[in-house]
């Protein structure tokens, strides 16, 4: 690795590095192992704009390739790997940490301080038996999905850039190494708090909570019990996030507590997937043999994970003794999850069906629609997008995706009656629905095509797909194939925890 430190880029000279200032109990300062002979794979102009950087930053600043491949750092960066613990697949896994992630530093931006984090820059003290590397395949998926989720309006870490190398890495097969740079206001996880709670380190736990409140939840400082306010805010953000996942048909795949963002962001893209056929029991992670994180189970998993997070906060609530009063207060904060999730999902589904106002019977209408999609094995994204063309006088192309036309017609009659009840205007409703139902999502076969070409040295499809996914609601975004039914070979694709 090159130990040189290059001057900071002129548009990003201040690095507050607030998490680094917490001390050695929270992280290990270190440099990345880097990639030999790195090359650019892709960059996101939109993510760069969040940092206040020009679109050509990666060309303008000569040291950028070395920095974002883990080979060098800019002046002001304070690279580190953080320690955390967590529950994995519902089982306490003990100490974990940034096994293949490395925070480069925290940089001031027009939108506030942002953390820059490399994924795949080599081993850290928390790598356990791993090599600390990421492969090109998984890195492309994470880079593309981070940006895709943002443009779908779903809170997420961002993908700034992706670099690659000929360095061989063994997974199910020998692949090549890559490093993806992630951007977020914070990568704090439920597992950071669990780590200090389960190791009886309550002073560090308090320090971490104070840090989170001061820098990420400042409104909580005004509450009588700031930590309870923090729990309530995290609960609501998590509920709203998972409601958005369910509405768009996104499956995270590994909802361990160490993969749950304190800020309610989608982070740690691994074996994720978007639904093709609407199947509530769909398991996107080939490693999840028991289906713990199946699509329909995600809301309850989020609720369970919040309880694990709340347990870690018990020493900071009241006198820290877990009295009945303190437990009741914690339960009251957690109880907001069910209400907020239900309200958020209902609002999302009303928007997807073009319903302006909430009325009695709407939930039954939505549930029966989803049940119809399930029983008829209909593609979720395509059905929702085609529903945008529906009118009470002409069902349009959505009717064609159902084998049982009579079953659809029965539901459509109820839908038409519901639209008439609020005097819905077709053109206005259809335009609104097109802003709620994406034409294109990152399906596995689209990512796989980009991966296969990239593994042959052609990165053009990665950048093309990035552009398509940045306009997921537009009628002219991408090709007909991008928005079409998955090819037959897509059914053979599978992703696992090594993906």
From TrEMBL:
Listed EC numbers: 2.7.7.-, 2.7.7.108
Binding site for Mg(2+): 259, 268
InterPro entries to which the protein is assigned, alphabetical: SelO (IPR003846)
Domain of life per record: Bacteria
One Pfam family it belongs to: SelO
Key words, A-Z: ATP-binding, Magnesium, Manganese, Metal-binding, Nucleotide-binding, Nucleotidyltransferase, Transferase
The keyword Nucleotidyltransferase is annotated on this UniProt entry: yes
Cofactors named for this entry: Mg(2+); Mn(2+)
Catalytic reactions on record: L-seryl-[protein] + ATP = 3-O-(5'-adenylyl)-L-seryl-[protein] + diphosphate; L-tyrosyl-[protein] + ATP = O-(5'-adenylyl)-L-tyrosyl-[protein] + diphosphate; L-seryl-[protein] + UTP = O-(5'-uridylyl)-L-seryl-[protein] + diphosphate; L-tyrosyl-[protein] + UTP = O-(5'-uridylyl)-L-tyrosyl-[protein] + diphosphate
Signal peptide positions (record): none
Keyword Magnesium: yes
Active site: 258 (proton acceptor)
GO-annotated molecular function: AMPylase activity; ATP binding; magnesium ion binding; manganese ion binding
Residues involved in ATP binding: 97, 99-100, 119, 131-132, 182, 189, 268
Task performed by this protein: Nucleotidyltransferase involved in the post-translational modification of proteins. It can catalyze the addition of adenosine monophosphate (AMP) or uridine monophosphate (UMP) to a protein, resulting in modifications known as AMPylation and UMPylation.
Family the UniProt entry places it in: Belongs to the SELO family.
Protein name, as recorded: Protein nucleotidyltransferase YdiU
């Amino acid at each position: 690795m090159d130990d040189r430190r290059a001057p900071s880029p002129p548009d990003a000279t201040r690095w507050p590095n607030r998490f680094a200032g917490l001390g050695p109990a929270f992280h290990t300062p270190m440099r990345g192992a880097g990639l030999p002979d790195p090359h650019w794979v892709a960059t996101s102009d939109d993510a760069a704009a969040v940092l206040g950087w020009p679109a050509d930053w990666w060309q303008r600043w000569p040291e950028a390739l070395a920095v974002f491949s883990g080979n060098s750092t800019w002046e002001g960066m304070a690279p580190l790997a953080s320690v955390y613990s967590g529950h994995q697949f519902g089982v306490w896994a003990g100490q974990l940490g940034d096994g293949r992630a490395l925070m480069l530093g925290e940089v001031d931006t027009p939108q506030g301080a942002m953390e820059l984090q490399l994924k795949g820059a080599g081993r850290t003290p928390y790598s356990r038996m791993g090599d600390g590397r990421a492969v090109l395949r998984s890195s492309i998926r994470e880079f593309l999905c981070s940006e895709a989720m943002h443009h779908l309006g779903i809170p997420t870490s961002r993908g700034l850039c992706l670099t690659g190398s000929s360095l061989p890495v063994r997974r199910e097969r020998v692949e090549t190494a890559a490093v993806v740079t992630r951007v977020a206001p914070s990568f704090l996880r439920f597992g950071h708090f669990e780590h200090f709670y389960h190791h009886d380190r309550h002073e560090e736990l308090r320090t971490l909570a104070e840090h989170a409140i001061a820098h990420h939840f400042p409104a909580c400082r005004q509450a009588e019990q700031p930590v309870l306010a923090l729990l309530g805010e995290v609960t609501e953000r998590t509920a709203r996030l998972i409601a958005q996942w369910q509405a768009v048909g996104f499956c995270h795949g590994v909802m361990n507590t160490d993969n749950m963002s304190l800020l309610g962001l989608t982070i740690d893209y691994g074996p994720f997937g978007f639904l093709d056929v609407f199947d509530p029991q769909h398991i996107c992670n080939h490693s999840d043999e028991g289906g713990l994180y199946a699509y329909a189970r995600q809301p309850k998993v989020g609720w369970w994970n919040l309880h694990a997070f709340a347990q870690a906060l018990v020493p900071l609530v009241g006198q820290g003794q877990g009295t009945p009063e303190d437990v009741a207060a914690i339960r009251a904060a957690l109880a907001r999850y069910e209400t907020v999730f239900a309200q958020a999902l209902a609002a999302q589904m009303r928007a997807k069906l073009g319903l302006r106002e909430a009325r009695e019977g709407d939930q039954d209408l939505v549930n029966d629609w989803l049940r119809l999609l399930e029983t008829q094995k209909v593609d979720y994204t395509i059905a929702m997008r085609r529903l945008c063309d529906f009118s009470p006088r002409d069902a349009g192309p959505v009717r064609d995706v159902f084998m049982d036309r009579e079953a659809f017609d029965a539901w459509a009659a109820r839908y038409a009656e519901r639209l008439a009840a609020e005097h819905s205007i077709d053109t206005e409703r259809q335009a609104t629905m097109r802003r709620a139902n994406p034409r294109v999502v990152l399906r596995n076969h689209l990512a796989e095509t980009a991966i296969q070409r990239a593994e042959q040295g052609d990165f053009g499809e990665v950048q093309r797909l990035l552009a398509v996914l940045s306009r997921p609601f537009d009628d002219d975004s991408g090709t007909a194939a991008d928005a079409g039914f998955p090819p037959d070979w897509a059914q053979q694709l599978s992703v696992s925890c090594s993906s």
